[in-house]
Amino acid sequence: MVQGRGSAMAVAVAAMLCMMLLRFDMAHAATYSVGGPGGWTFNVSGWPKGKSFKAGDILVFNYSPAAHNVVAVNRAGYSSCSTPRGAKVYTSGKDRIKLVKGQNFFTCSFTGHCQSGMKIAVNAV
């Protein structure tokens, strides 16, 4: 009976440590407003310069949904300002997107917007 209590206590302590580690990791994810105070608009392609991003960080895209959108694209879509088949399109005007490890590419698919610098490439480590 005593051995059973010890095992239950060890499991409880291990579970508590796992929860603390998960909270610690989540607490250190940063949130960035893309484009700063001006939001997601033209000529934001240089906005990521000088910033350090980590996987799990959140990018917030603020914009008018009647005027813009956000499309998560691959490198080819970013370079050519095209929307690949199956690309995720965000349209809320207050989109929150979690970065994955590696390159993350985002554009606006409204005609001419990507070509006018409404695209960003973010590398998350």
Task: Give an account of the 3D structure.
There is one protein chain. With 125 residues, the chain is of the alpha+beta class. It has two helices and seven strands, in the order H-E-E-E-H-E-E-E-E. Strands 4-3-6-7 form a four-stranded antiparallel β-sheet. A three-stranded mixed β-sheet has the order 1-2-5, with no helix packed on it. It starts with a helix and ends with a strand. 20% of the residues are buried.
Structural class: alpha+beta
Strand residue percentage: 25-35%
Helix residue percentage: 25-40%
| Unreliable runs | none
How many H/I helices?
A: 2
Shape: globular
Radius of gyration over all CA atoms, rounded = 20 Å
What is the number of beta strands?
7
Largest sheet: 4 strands, antiparallel
Oligomer: single chain
Terminal Cα span = 48 Å
Give, in spatial order, the strands making up the sheet with the most strands.
Answer: 4-3-6-7
Q: Could you state the order of secondary-structure elements as H and E?
A: HEEEHEEEE
- pLDDT averaged over residues: 88
Pfam families: Cu_bind_like
Organism: Salix viminalis (Common osier)
Protein name: Basic blue protein
Domain Phytocyanin: 30-125
TL;DR of this structure?
With 125 residues, this protein is α+β, with helices and mostly antiparallel strands.
Give short descriptive properties of this protein.
125 residues; alpha+beta; 4-stranded antiparallel beta sheet; 3-stranded mixed beta sheet; 2 helices; 26% helix; globular
